């Protein structure tokens, strides 16, 4: 009897199947036409514990950086009363990057990146503390500010290539856009509220004590970076001075042979030279002369920049990959030109907050896409050097600072911004024609092996 029941079961099942297979039934393949994402990738990089340590360190460092930006910007304009000198000072920290970044990249390829970053943070802490003591004593002069900003820039020429090459060591190439966007999110998050806090602290306790606080904070950033663990296969070889120049040439040769990286360097120079000075260098002038809102208002303006950057990095981090970064990059540059035109015609503080928020978000998106693309196109053993060569483009901030500062002194800050926007629009048009390989680059079909 038991066997008979087992034989009959399939027949019963078949009959049931025939009953429910009606002609108007909706079949599963029709439902698959609608694609619903199964996973949000915004915080993928945080799965790596080494990246979490790096992110926390960068967040701590960023809080110190934004305190410094408010202090230096406001102090420079109060002492000099010159839009030109203020603009030059705010861009002076990247002048050493123009010359020193390739050497900084070579150093980062040859030394333990964790120890190197730790030493950089100690160096910066000492310089900031000395400047803070001078401020407390009430002896700050214009040349003091120039020397201080320049010495901080010397550290930056090594810091930036080292940080990005370290990130590329602990994160896969497919995750670089996400990791770099989240790294920028830390920077933007601190920019969101630290500048406003810094403006308030200037009024409450003065410049000197703020600088002492900043020096202390940076030490903690250096400590956090030491928790990162690097495998032996990723450790650097013993540095050799005899091989330094040939290895430097290898980095330049690789960049020269890659028109996509050259394109991103050229367009980055456009943005950095004409947008960054407007964002950082002229904000103290806008706060004092156009909007007349004082140091607290300047802090809020810089915080608005932070909000725009923060929102853009959250959005960008949600994409695992951008297939045509060159096309997206040119679109962002056009938006930046439009926002600068808008700022040059605006006298309303609240509207200015919205414009700078949008400008900062677009600028941060471009930078993240550009540096992620450069990192993606670079083999591991050249990453520090190529990153350093790319970071040379940041040296154009000094050129832009002089240009916009001169225009602001002659025509006023808003006309200077209008002229800068016009120059940027013209450069975008030329770049779109010249950098064709950058425009057609597609991450889905391009390989380093094709170089």
Report the order of strands and helices: HHHHHHHHHHHHHHHHHHHH
Give the end-to-end Cα distance, rounded to a whole number of Å: 75 Å
Number of DSSP E strands: 0
Task: Fill in the CATH topology.
Answer: Growth Hormone, Chain: A
Could you give a short account of the major beta sheet? none
CATH superfamily: MFS general substrate transporter like domains
* Count of domains: 1
Average pLDDT confidence is: 80
CATH architecture classification name: Up-down Bundle
Radius of gyration: 26 Å
Sum up the overall morphology in one term: globular
Short description:
By secondary structure, the chain is mainly α. It is 77% helix and 0% strand. The chain has helices at 2-20, 28-31, 49-80, 83-92, 95-110, 113-136, 142-170, 176-204, 207-225, 244-256, 259-274, 276-281, 283-290, 294-317, 325-344, 349-376, 383-391, 396-411, 413-434, 436-440.
Could you please describe the fold and organization of this structure?
The protein is mainly alpha-helical. It has a single domain, classed as MFS general substrate transporter like domains (Growth Hormone, Chain: A), CATH 1.20.1250.20. The protein contains 20 helices and no strands. Helix 15 (325-344) packs antiparallel against helix 19 (413-434). The longest helix has 32 residues, at 49-80.
Write the layout of secondary structure elements.
Layout: H1 2-20, H2 28-31, H3 49-80, H4 83-92, H5 95-110, H6 113-136, H7 142-170, H8 176-204, H9 207-225, H10 244-256, H11 259-274, H12 276-281, H13 283-290, H14 294-317, H15 325-344, H16 349-376, H17 383-391, H18 396-411, H19 413-434, H20 436-440
């Amino acid at each position: 009897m038991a066997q008979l029941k087992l034989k009959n079961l399939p027949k019963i099942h078949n009959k049931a199947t025939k009953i429910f297979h009606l002609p108007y039934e909706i079949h599963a393949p029709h439902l698959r036409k609608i694609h619903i994402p199964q996973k949000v990738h915004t915080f993928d990089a945080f799965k790596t514990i080494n990246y979490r340590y790096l992110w926390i360190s960068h967040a701590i460092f960023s809080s110190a950086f934004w305190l410094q930006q408010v202090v230096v910007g406001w102090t420079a304009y109060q002492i000099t009363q010159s839009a030109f000198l203020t603009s030059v000072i705010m861009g002076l920290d990247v002048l050493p990057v123009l010359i020193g970044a390739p050497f900084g990249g070579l150093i980062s390829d040859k030394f333990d990146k964790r120890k190197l970053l730790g030493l950089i943070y100690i160096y910066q802490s000492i310089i900031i503390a000395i400047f803070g003591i001078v401020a407390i004593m009430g002896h700050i002069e214009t040349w003091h500010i120039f020397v201080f900003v320049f010495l901080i820039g010397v550290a930056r020429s090594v810091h930036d290539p080292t940080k990005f090459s370290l990130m590329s060591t602990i994160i896969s190439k497919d995750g670089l856009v996400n990791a770099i966007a989240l790294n920028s999110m830390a920077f933007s998050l601190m920019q969101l509220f630290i500048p406003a806090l810094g403006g308030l602290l200037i009024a409450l306790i003065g410049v000197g004590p703020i600088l002492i606080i900043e020096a202390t904070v940076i030490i903690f950033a250096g400590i956090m970076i030491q928790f990162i663990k690097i495998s032996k296969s990723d450790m650097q070889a013993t540095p050799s001075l005899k091989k330094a120049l040939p290895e430097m040439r290898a980095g330049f040769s690789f960049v020269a042979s890659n028109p996509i990286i050259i394109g991103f360097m050229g367009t980055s120079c456009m943005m950095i030279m004409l947008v960054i000075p407007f964002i950082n260098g002229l904000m103290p002038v806008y706060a004092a002369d156009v909007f007349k809102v004082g140091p607290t208002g300047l802090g809020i303006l810089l915080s608005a920049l932070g909000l725009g950057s923060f929102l853009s990095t959250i959005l960008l981090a949600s994409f695992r990959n951008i297939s045509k970064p060159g096309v997206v990059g040119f679109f962002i540059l056009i938006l930046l030109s439009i926002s600068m035109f808008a700022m040059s015609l605006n006298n309303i503080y609240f509207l200015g907050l919205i414009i700078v928020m949008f400008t900062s978000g677009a600028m941060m998106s471009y930078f993240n896409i550009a540096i992620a693309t450069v990192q993606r196109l670079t083999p591991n053993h050249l990453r520090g050097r190529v990153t350093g060569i790319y970071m040379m483009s940041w040296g154009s901030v000094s050129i832009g600072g002089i240009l916009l500062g001169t225009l602001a002194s002659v025509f006023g800050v808003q006309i200077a911004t209008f002229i800068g926007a016009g120059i940027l629009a013209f450069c975008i048009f030329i770049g779109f024609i010249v950098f064709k390989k950058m425009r057609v680059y597609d991450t889905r079909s391009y390989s380093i092996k094709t170089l």
